[in-house]
Each structure stands twice: as structure tokens, then as C-alpha cells.
Write a structure and sequence with these properties.
- This protein is mainly β.
- It has a single domain (about 30-145), classed as Jelly Rolls.
- Helix content is about 5%, strand content about 45%.
- Strands 3-4-10-5-8 form a five-stranded antiparallel beta sheet, with no helix packed on it. A three-stranded antiparallel beta sheet has the order 7-6-9, with no helix packed on it. Strands 1-2 form a two-stranded antiparallel ribbon.
- A hairpin with a 3-residue loop joins β6 (about 100-105) and β7 (about 110-115).
């Protein structure tokens, strides 16, 4: 499914639509940086889990079933994610679950997150577990912290 992205701008004191169409880089929707606080096109597909300080990333995450994730991690380890899918980023993540349920696993316990539930992930070590047979989608807005 293609994500439609509408970007606005202001020219001569008047607001207008700058672009309206498919997000050019799939599910990487928009990024901001200290040099571009209003944002710029994201790079082509990014595999980075984290976000640099004072940067933000707006993306849709497709989470495959847990067995697929574990097999991929064992075949091709990722430096930011351990074999169990745990990772920690120096970010504040605002996550909206579109499909589900999905399990958010923490060092001490876990919680089942349903569609339309929101998670505020505050730089904690965590993993996501999709116990279903189909990929699920999460909308994530990540802000890099110092």
C-alpha cells in the first residue's frame, strides 16, 4: 500500500500545498535536522534504528511476524538490534499501532498493544513481537535526544 504524503509550505506569507503524492521513499515520510528544522526529503530506504540528537523521523514501520524477524536477525545480525530484537535508541518515540495486536517487551514485563493504542517510548530497551501470521504497521515519530 502506498502512503500519500501532503507537504505544505508558505510562500510570500501565504500557505499552499508544496507536494501531494506518494511518499517518494516508501514509508520514510519526513525528517528534520538542526540545519533543516522545517524538514527535508528523507534518504532512500534507511535501516537505521536510531535518530541523531535534534533530528526527527516520521515513518511507517512494517513489523513482520516474530519468527521472520528472529530468522532474519540470526542470518544477518544488526549492530543496533540483538538476536532477540531488543534495541535501545536515544529517542522519544511516539508510536501509534495501526494493526495488531503487538507485544511490547521490556526488560521487566510486557504489554499487549492493540490497534489505535499509542506508546510513548522514552529511550528504553525494548522489542516488538508480532505473534500473528501477517505483518503489522506502526506509525512512529522519533525525536533524537542528546
Amino acid at each position: 500500500m502506498t502512503t500519500r504524503r501532503i507537504v505544505t509550505e508558505e510562500v510570500g506569507g501565504r500557505s499552499r500545498v508544496r507536494s501531494d503524492g506518494p511518499a517518494p521513499h516508501g514509508d520514510q515520510i519526513w525528517i528534520t535536522t538542526p540545519d533543516e528544522p522545517m524538514g527535508v526529503e528523507p534518504p532512500r530506504e534507511s535501516t537505521a534504528v536510531g535518530v541523531p540528537p535534534r533530528h526527527s523521523v516520521f515513518r511507517i514501520v512494517h513489523l513482520p511476524p516474530d519468527a521472520v524477524v528472529r530468522a532474519a536477525l540470526s542470518a544477518d545480525p544488526h549492530e543496533e538490534v540483538d538476536a532477540e530484537g531488543f534495541h535501545r535508541t536515544r529517542t522519544i518515540d511516539h508510536v501509534l499501532v495501526l494493526d495488531g495486536p503487538v507485544e511490547l517487551v521490556l526488560d521487566e514485563g510486557s504489554v499487549i498493544v492493540e490497534p489505535r493504542d499509542c506508546v510513548i517510548q522514552r529511550g528504553t530497551n525494548h522489542a516488538w513481537r508480532n505473534h500473528g501470521d501477517e505483518p503489522i504497521r506502526l506509525v512512529a515519530f522519533m525525536i533524537g535526544t542528546p
